[in-house]
């Protein structure tokens, strides 16, 4: 059987249905899953184990049999913990078939076949009764269904159903409760992910400021969660305006209601400033009295137990609909609203008592300006980066003449606006708006002379940026588009950027390696079946694939010098043959070679470039600073351990990299 997967074609920029082996989806799911990261989360695992032991003891002390329901068992880990803790029987429910199969194998391998029944169903399909999936209702409910926003993976409706149909009243729940915390901050950096700041353009006839239209100014944005590794946000990048306060909590041992709700807390600003952002995270108490606590609190929050790195749970950044000034000591109300799956926030000034009694219901944010649908958060940040814009302005000023006819090919780009302000006479742009700027709603290969009013293009520009790009080199679509419009270009056309270069560096990750590293034994349970499954899925493709990661969130150190490995000349058309390179890169520092990082640098014009990857190596130790608006490509080496260079022996990594011009994809191979 074959399945079809939607994917952007990097040579056409279009979404296409690609026929894949039926196992493709499942392998992607496993290979890119967070299971490995969860199994490496020692803090989470030990606390679950403590909480489960305590719950089993409480039930036993009451003289009852301990019957456990584990919803979303994954590898079966929490059920095995329960069985080891003395539970009489466990029902382990898992909806994802490959995982349920793995759970059966792992449970068997660890000798719990008689104690744990794996049920491959969604929990809402599970039946109870003599002929049902479960003989009787459970008196211990164990789950781990949380995402960074706590409720985004549907924990609330799952709990609601379980309490109604699958567990006894007064059951023990592990975790017992979750609490969501918030802190109000001002942060130009984070605010730049949500609003377009004025753009300053130094033109020959003086400074001009491009401002965003008012519907964009006042747009509440989109409700999708912004989850980041907040611990990588330097304290200088935000100003704390309030203490940390509890926003709401959920008791999982009682009937949980998933219906929409709102909560309101009073905040007394500790500092005057502009309220822009609500930072949020949660913790879970594994036991009723809260002695066993697992928290996602960021580094500046005191009393945080030993820090645990994890990628499956991070912290949330919520954007208030508008920035509002707050004054130190003058109380304000923060309102949180949620539906079944997401949370959003609004600030209320404390005015009349009456008005404040009702926690006014706030509508879920809906983008009215379109920009939040076109630009995601990192893209907003990129467009607000004045240094980057400065490079484009400098380059445009170099190439634009008063009689230039320009074509811009990029998604949601401000280049036409910049060029217009810099005096370009006429500007054509594929896919966008404005007056002096003509938007051509066609694909490059379908561009007609009539679209261009029979003019030839003298300046072709692009950032390049395309919303469908996943990996850095997917923006080479610009090159394909340039090739497609060749017949419309003058013989002396200027192409901006004129070329691009692919760079590569070998790195040691501080933590990110965990997400692709086998776990072996987890809390005494053999989970190698899972390791093998992940390895098998990673190797499913003949050659492994690089994956995109925003490396500003994932500290690493460089083990080699950065190296330019391939160049792409946009002044020429895409060649027929593929571009390939081979070589070796010396390891200069001692460390574990976890993988190679690859990124693109665009040469806009002579001596002017923009870099989407490594900004600098900041110290002797090799710590790296990355472009904060872009994802870089990470190619994890399959064996890490072997790659530690011997003390006195300089070692090297050999590579072979091939850019297939037919597919627009890059395939690579490394040998240590
Ligand atoms: N319990 C494991 C895995 C947690 S990941 C551990 O702690 O290591 C959550 C798992 O729950 C995923 O495998 C997902 O497929 C499954 N899941 C989520 N909601 C579910 C539901 N309502 N019914 C059954 N499985 C569910």
Automatic annotation (TrEMBL):
Residues in Protein arginine N-methyltransferase domain copies: 176-347, 498-645
InterPro entries, per database record: Arg_MeTrfase, MeTrfase_PRMT7, PRMT_dom, SAM-dependent_MTases_sf
Biological processes, Gene Ontology terms: cell differentiation; methylation
Catalytic activity: L-arginyl-[protein] + S-adenosyl-L-methionine = N(omega)-methyl-L-arginyl-[protein] + S-adenosyl-L-homocysteine + H(+)
A molecular function (GO) term: histone methyltransferase activity
Keyword line: Chromatin regulator, Cytoplasm, Differentiation, Methyltransferase, Nucleus, Repeat, S-adenosyl-L-methionine, Transcription, Transcription regulation, Transferase
GO cellular component, one term: cytoplasm
Function, as annotated: Arginine methyltransferase that can both catalyze the formation of omega-N monomethylarginine (MMA) and symmetrical dimethylarginine (sDMA), with a preference for the formation of MMA. Specifically mediates the symmetrical dimethylation of arginine residues in the small nuclear ribonucleoproteins Sm D1 (SNRPD1) and Sm D3 (SNRPD3); such methylation being required for the assembly and biogenesis of snRNP core particles. Specifically mediates the symmetric dimethylation of histone H4 'Arg-3' to form H4R3me2s.
Protein name as it appears in the record: Protein arginine N-methyltransferase 7
Source species of the chain: Pedionomus torquatus
Highest classification ranks of the organism: Eukaryota, Metazoa, Chordata, Craniata, Vertebrata
